[in-house]
Write a structure and sequence with these properties.
GO molecular function, one term: ligase activity
Strand order of the largest sheet: 7-8-9-10-11-18-19
CATH architecture of the largest domain: 4-Layer Sandwich
Protein name: DNA ligase-associated DEXH box helicase
Oligomer: single chain
Number of helices: 10
Number of strands: 19
Radius of gyration: 21 Å
Keywords: Ligase
Order of helices and strands: HEEEEEHEEEEEEHEHEHEHEEHEHEHEH
Shape: globular
Strand content: 15-25%
CATH class of the largest domain: Alpha Beta
Mean pLDDT: 91
Length: 358
């Protein structure tokens, strides 16, 4: 779909000034910066102090001197990034840095995900990171936070994106699995190793058969098992025989598709759980047999409802359909702008690298 034209702001930093006052949060070459506190939010280049919304690779990058994030996200980013200096905070706990108050609030995106509220001299900004409004039953549900300025993703910022209830999608997935089993085929279901895979795992019907996992998904699920009651899984290793897998379901990262690793599953059918499956042709382009529309991001109505609930006047649209979405918001009477970041949204799910080959 071709994006609608939208007036671009030649100097985003200048535009957000109120009189001669610098904005509380500004975008620079390293990330989203609070100059008053000397703190970055989800920076994409190494910095001294980074407040991190969640564990996905585009938001929590290696190389920062100090990480601060929600308690639940601490083991996740330590698993991904190795030995880092990281401290955890509770939801709604206030951290004050040089007079600026920071607090983390549920984003509902994945386990351990947060929005970050920033307040200074009565002015309040909220940075969402990534978020979704549907309660998935494993993440702390999204909570709107009142603010003056709202930095929002718009990964799926088009009216065409409208999600079905999670239970309906999971029923479709379990029905697909059952049909494949009756046909003597293995079901290979692709989902990002952090977040989407665990959401799928939680609601797979184990009365149909056993759940097998790619090593990358199994490793991350082991990190999260202390937090969620997941069904049992079996890691696929070289010792697992092809006949053992037949008729069961395999959870794998998208990048496993087309690899030599998947040959052990023959005969199989592939499925992908992603918001992009809402687009005609997405399944065909990725050579997927079955697409299930299930996203860890807001759909169009979720974005609009979230913005309204904040009571904000200003909106900064980051990754996604930024131009179209910001133009629509301006037509609604908001002061909406766009800003470039290095966040990828759900595109990361389609392009993720295999983290383990066993």
């Amino acid at each position: 779909m071709q994006e609608m034209p939208c007036t671009k702001i030649p100097n985003f930093r200048e535009h957000l000034k109120i009189g001669m006052k610098e904005p509380l949060l500004a975008f620079n070459e390293n990330g989203i910066y609070c100059a008053q506190a000397g703190v970055y939010l989800d920076p994409w280049k190494p910095v001294e102090k980074a407040f991190i919304t969640h564990g996905h690779a585009d938001h929590s990058r290696w190389g920062h001197k100090k990480y601060i994030t929600h308690n639940t996200n601490v083991p996740i980013i330590k698993h991904r990034l190795g030995e880092i200096e990281v401290s955890g905070v509770h939801y709604n706990e206030t951290i004050t840095v040089n007079g600026v108050k920071f607090s983390f609030h549920p984003a509902g995106h994945i386990i351990g995900s947060s929005q970050i509220r920033v307040e200074y001299k009565g002015e309040v900004w909220v940075f969402t990171g990534d978020y979704k409004t549907e309660d998935d039953g494993i993440s702390v549900p999204y909570e709107p936070v009142k603010c003056n300025a709202f930095i929002t993703e718009c990964t799926f910022g088009l009216p065409a994106f409208k999600w079905l209830p999670q239970q309906q999608v999971m029923n479709d997935i379990n029905t697909w699995w059952q049909q494949n089993r009756e046909a003597g085929k293995t079901s290979v279901l692709f989902g990002y190793s952090l977040g989407k895979a665990q959401r799928l795992l939680k609601y797979l019907d184990t009365s149909i058969g056993k759940i097998y996992t790619h090593g990358a998904i199994e490793n991350m699920t082991e990190v999260l098992r202390p937090l969620v009651d997941f069904p049992p899984t079996t890691r696929i290793t070289r010792d697992v025989k092809k006949d053992e897998i037949k008729g069961n379901i395999v959870l794998a990262p998208p990048s496993a598709h087309g690899s030599t690793w998947i040959k052990k599953m023959v005969p199989y059918e592939t499925g992908s759980a992603s918001g992009w499956m809402a687009f005609r042709g997405a399944r065909r382009r990725r050579a997927i047999d079955k697409g299930f529309v299930l996203s860890d991001h807001c759909d169009w109505q979720g974005l609009l409802a979230s913005i309204k609930a904040t009571g904000c006047e200003r909106i900064i649209c980051t990754h996604g359909y930024t131009e179209i979405f910001s133009r629509f918001l301006n037509e609604m009477g908001y002061d909406a702008r766009t800003a470039e970041t290095q966040y990828e949204g759900e595109l990361a799910e389609m392009d993720s690298k295999i983290e383990e080959t066993d």
